[in-house]
Predict the 3D structure of the following.
Amino acid sequence: MKIVGFVASPRKAGNTAWVVNTILEGARERGAETETWHYGDLDIKPCQGCLGCKTGKKTGCVLADDMRKIFPALESANALVFGSPLYMGQMSGQAKIFVDRLSSQFMPRFSPFYKEQAAKKLIVVFTQGNPDAGMFRAYYEYTKNMFQLLGFAVDLHTVVGTRNGPAHEQEGLCAVMRQVGALLVTEESCPR
Ligand SMILES: Cc1cc2nc3c(=O)[nH]c(=O)nc-3n(C[C@H](O)[C@H](O)[C@H](O)COP(=O)(O)O)c2cc1C
């Protein structure tokens, strides 16, 4: 089983990277092969809205940047782990740029361009500074629904309270996140 992680935080050693890597560690312990992509290492341009991926030869996104390496990795993966810090109550700008670019490959059910295909497992994990787990729940639910519309089988997790100390210092969190990764390998499918 191959699992691809994407960290949409500019901080390579930050909370989000730690959480994504800990989930992947748990998956590796169960025999999965994993790889991690960090937004900060990559050249990913914003979608230009040219619709080149949907017209003409339909060979995918026309932009020549690092998404050309990531698309095949996503395609060959059995499951994805996508992590973003919460910025101003939403996913980071980096995360949004990445997600917009997925529109050339994945199929929003609101779009007439794509055929349906089997759902791919996706763990979405947000880290937030505020310790109140309910404060941004409406946004998290909205985001989960958006990924479901893209055709993913989504499991959403939040790590809260990072303003009080780094995620890796939260008691018990390492074991919980490793378990999330382990279940990705052992469970038949995530809840939709
Ligand atoms: C620009 C910016 C905006 C933020 N907005 C929020 C927010 O709206 N709510 C919140 O709880 N935390 C907010 N935070 C805190 C981050 O979500 C939190 O520190 C997160 O764990 C950072 O992840 P990282 O270590 O991977 O960068 C914000 C941080 C930054 C830099």
Summary: Residues 2-186 form a domain with the Rossmann fold fold (CATH 3.40.50.360). The first helix runs from residue 15 to 29. The mean pLDDT is 92. The two ends are 20 Å apart (CA to CA).
